[in-house]
Amino acid sequence: MTARRQYRLLANVDHGKVRTYRKGCCCASCTAAAVDAARRWQAKARQKPFAEIPHGTAGGYTNYACRCPECTAAMTAAKRPHGRGQV
Ligand SMILES: [Zn+2]
Ligand SMILES: [Zn+2]
């Protein structure tokens, strides 16, 4: 069984805002605002100096587009299903 996320359209809120999206609104304009904000954040994150990137984390790989061995290994580990390690 998978938990289904319920998306609802909120009334009396400012649509087209990330804040509204975070409140749970998933209308087209709020989603677009959230996607836009994430893209801008990511573009900024990718300009970070190598030393400031959290290496060895999946976030370093995805958010910072770091492909160093540590981040790549963390990403591989994160993708692997949990439980018994398979060789
Ligand atoms: Zn909305
Ligand atoms: Zn790295």
UniProtKB/TrEMBL annotation:
**What's the protein name?**
HNH endonuclease
Q: What organism is the protein native to?
A: Streptomyces violascens
